[in-house]
Amino acid sequence: MSGALTVALKDLRLLARDRAGLFWVIGFPLLMASLFGAIFGGGGEGGRGSLPIAVVDEDGTNGSRAFAEELGKSEALVVKALARADAVDQVRKGKLVAYVAVGKGFGDSPLGALLGGQGDPLLEVGIDPSRRAEAGYLEGILMEASFRLLMDRFADPKSLQGPVRKSIAELDGASGLPPGQREVLKGFLGDLDRFLGTVEPGTVKRGPAATSSKIKIVAVARQGSEPRTAYEVSFPQAIIWGLLGCVSTFAISIVTERVNGTYLRLRLSPLSRVEILGGKALACFAASCGVVVLLLVVGRLLFGVRLENPAGVVLALLCSATCFVGIMMFLSTLGKTQQSVAGAGWAILLIMSMLGGGMIPLIAMPGWMRSVASFSPVKWAVLSMEGAIWRGFGVREMLLPSAILLAVGAAGFALGIIRLRRADG
């Protein structure tokens, strides 16, 4: 046992001195976790869930500018001002969800956006017809902004009488409007005109009671089988890449020692084959556990990654490290030179990662791909980590991935020992 520990400490010291190797074991996984978490988390301008739109102001009045400012205040939108041609082009290319064109006459007819009128519509929304949900969402935001502007105009009721009377005149010339509807609208606008004439300026002002519904918003934290942030998906993937880095590093170190004669000298020493290979496995296991712990600490402290089941995290860590130690031992026997082992090893590791969720998150995979992923040990390592971090796995749910990881590790270690014995003659 002391001999195996000596070999393990020697290999860990060599890894610590190899700065390039440390980057691929620690730095690269951290970079992937933070980068993909930021990309999929929508951490850019406007935050996750905000719709990027353009406002095309073709009216150029104080009213249209105030309307654009109201839209810019919405947390649901990221607004930029563009010319019509540029706005249409960016929507067509998918850079913006939609554009909102404010037509001429908008500022002179604050009721037009809410009640409609003759001629061309005062507001035009350009959006992909397949995005029906976003179109309805945006229409509600536009109506809200129009209503807020209308409430501002009520602060000076006399200024609204002119547009209201203009709307009444337009109704008289509306040929396509049913007579019954025309009379209803004329009656409403006539009553509104008389009402505005009786209200003193400053009587009506926009306030919380006038612009918000009597609705109580209660924060309810999500529970169950969904990640709260994209980092809770990207960090299990980063852990896999850290483990793959350890596997590659130690597999190449074994073949390097065989090529350089270090392994032969160790075999001629009082150390047994079990102690030598056990030391290699122990070093890989310790490095793997250290990398996983470091990534989890960084994820928890800097990115708010949950650890729903601490005991499950420990179990997933130990089983995943054991699995990839066995894979490392097998990969180290696939060639007689560093180049052959590195090439064959990374080819196998990349295929396992591609199929198992190291590149495409398990939660985003189509059904057929999740079925194929079951043949990759990477899937079970990712699943065990996700189960302990955000899936809410209990003991029973953790048993299957843990058992598969241990079985793969044992099989890989056994195959590696057998092949090394045959190579030793």
Total DSSP E strands: 4
Distance between the termini: 25 Å
Helical proportion, percent range: 55-70%
Oligomer: single chain
Unreliable residue runs: 43-48, 208-215
* Beta-strand residue percentage: 5-15%
* Cross-sheet strand order for the largest sheet: 2-1-3-4
Number of helices: 17
Order of helices and strands: HHEHEHEHEHHHHHHHHHHHH
Choose one word for the global shape: rod-shaped
Mean pLDDT: 83
Class by SSE composition: mainly alpha
- Report on the biggest sheet: 4 strands, mixed
Q: What is the CA-based Rg, rounded?
A: 33 Å
Describe this structure in words.
The chain is mostly helical. It is 67% helix and 5% strand. The protein has helices at residues 2-17, 19-40, 62-73, 84-92, 112-115, 132-153, 158-172, 179-198, 208-211, 231-260, 262-268, 273-303, 310-331, 338-356, 367-373, 377-391, 395-424, and strands at 51-57, 77-81, 98-102, 123-127. It has a four-stranded mixed sheet with strand order 2-1-3-4, sandwiched between helices. Helix 3 links the parallel strand 1 and strand 2 (77-81). Helix 13 runs antiparallel to helix 16 (377-391) and helix 16 runs antiparallel to helix 17 (395-424). The radius of gyration is 33 Å and the shape is rod-shaped.
In brief:
Helix content is 67%, strand content 5%.
Task: Identify the notable features of this structure and list them briefly.
four-stranded mixed β-sheet, rod-shaped, mainly alpha, 425 residues
